[in-house]
Write a structure and sequence with these properties.
alpha/beta, Serine Threonine Protein Phosphatase 5, Tetratricopeptide repeat, 18 helices, globular
């Protein structure tokens, strides 16, 4: 081979290597996906295929395209396909009957929607706090337990970060919000039915009938809950709306609880499930659902709860919020950090206070624990216990408000508590501070007006 030819080959080879290298870098930068989200997506794709094997109607091809798009972190394509799947499922308003895909109205919908939800959570959350949320819950729950997720992160993040959601490792994750959906129950049966006892289709039908009968009786007695939509059409009782669905979900949670007496149960609150309150004990970010009703919350349980949240809130906001911190001081903090966005001298976590999803989630969980303290204070056996529960309530709600002063749970639960304990000035301060951050919120405007009138 002539010298010139050798030189040409060498130049060509080097150039090719460089081109391939940079192409790989560009390809990698365009398709970076969180390793846990990638693992979860792969597992849920496989689960979807397994569930689809026995279906008469095929799963539309764009479902597999959706999984592909998630795997390469193609947000635009995956969200467009997710919207198409949602329309085709017929589960959401505005569905075209001609476009509905029967396969998406079966159990295969659950693993699909879990990837949709997980991808959204991984995109919207600050990664550090997403993992902190997941690890705080996962590491605190014993293996083999049953965990009822309540929020979207409580379902999707916990499922994605678990060793294997499908195999119930390290524990069985179930969303309390979807138990009234028969296809979700079928999904749970396929996934966990050989390992834990779950409601059957017959159980679900009996629960629905029992709820309708109870709702009808309460309607006649004028005792329906706010937002509980119950009416009679042509002699038949019809129920609808979120409150009614959660009442049915609560009854199905109870069946799972009763059918698995040897299991430990943990719950992240979505909407309050009334029957659970006597059984709930604070457990880090969530609750343990004890096997039997607790006559009261032990001092050690309350103390452990306060130690956990003081450490966490101090890490997020700086170590300034304690038992004697006034409502006024809390509102001054939220004005400075969230309204004026002045982080001068701020000793907390700047990433957290810039991430709405993390704020809302952690605040909601703290508010939920405050809600259980309110329930306990209302049923206290004596003044000492009532005062102890009220002090725990007040601290929990102040912490929840400091974490997210626009959280509806933090604002309205705390204002209700302050009103009931005749602290109208503090109630007005909380409502006004939240309104300053969300000035177009009509509910907050009405709340401030009503409180001023009472004041």
């Amino acid at each position: 081979m002539a010298p010139g030819e050798t030189c040409l080959v060498k130049r060509f080879t080097v150039a090719s290597v460089i081109a391939v290298f940079f192409a790989a870098i560009l390809s990698l930068s365009a398709s970076v996906i969180d390793i846990d989200l990638a693992r979860f997506t792969t597992a849920k794709r496989e689960q979807t295929r397994d569930l689809a094997k026995d279906l008469t109607n095929p799963v539309p091809s764009y479902v597999w395209s959706f999984f592909d798009a998630v795997q390469v972190d193609d947000w635009e394509t995956s969200t467009n396909l997710a919207a198409r799947m949602q329309k085709a499922s017929g589960r959401f308003p505005g569905a075209d009957e001609n476009e509905i895909q029967p396969a998406l109205r079966t159990a295969v919908w659950s693993p699909i929607t879990e990837v949709v939800g997980a991808q959204e959570q991984f995109r919207e959350w600050d990664n550090k706090w997403l993992r902190r949320f997941g690890r705080e819950i996962i590491d605190s729950i014993p293996r083999g337990s049953v965990f009822f997720g309540g929020t979207d992160p409580g379902r999707f993040v916990i499922s994605a970060l678990s060793e294997s959601h499908r195999e119930g490792k390290p524990f069985f994750t179930i969303t309390q919000n979807q138990l009234a959906d028969g296809t979700y129950l079928a999904y749970l049966q396929a996934m966990y039915g050989a390992k834990i006892q779950l409601p059957s289709a017959e159980d679900s039908q009996k629960v629905f009938q029992a709820y309708v009968a109870d709702a009808q009786a309460r309607m006649k007695a004028g005792k329906l809950k706010p937002g509980e939509d119950v009416h009679v059409v042509e002699g038949r009782v019809q129920v609808s709306g979120q409150v009614a669905v959660m009442e049915i979900n609560a009854m199905l949670v109870r069946i799972i609880f009763d059918k698995n007496p040897g299991k430990q149960f943990f719950l992240e609150e979505s909407f309050p499930l009334d029957w659970t309150y006597p059984y709930l004990v604070p457990h880090g970010l969530v609750f343990e659902l004890k096997a039997t009703p607790q006559p009261s919350l032990a001092e050690k349980d309350v103390a452990q709860d306060q130690v956990f949240w003081k450490k966490l809130v101090s890490e997020i906001t700086g170590d300034w919020l304690g038992e004697k911190t006034s409502v006024k001081e809390v509102c001054e903090f939220t004005d400075k950090i969230f309204l004026r966005k002045n982080l001068d001298g701020f000793k907390g976590d700047k990433a957290f206070v810039k991430n709405d999803d993390a704020q809302k989630c952690f605040s909601k969980l703290r508010s939920a624990i405050g809600g259980v303290y309110v329930w306990r204070s209302d049923r206290a056996k004596d003044d000492e216990e009532r005062n102890r529960m009220r002090a725990a309530t007040d601290l929990a709600f102040r912490q929840a408000f400091a974490l997210c002063p626009t959280s509806p749970e933090a604002v309205f639960r705390y204002v209700n508590f302050l009103t009931q304990t005749k602290r109208m000035d503090d109630a007005v301060l909380i409502a006004q501070a939240s309104l300053r951050l969300d000035s177009e919120n009509q509910q907050l405007r009405d709340l401030v007006r009503q409180l001023r009138e009472k004041q």
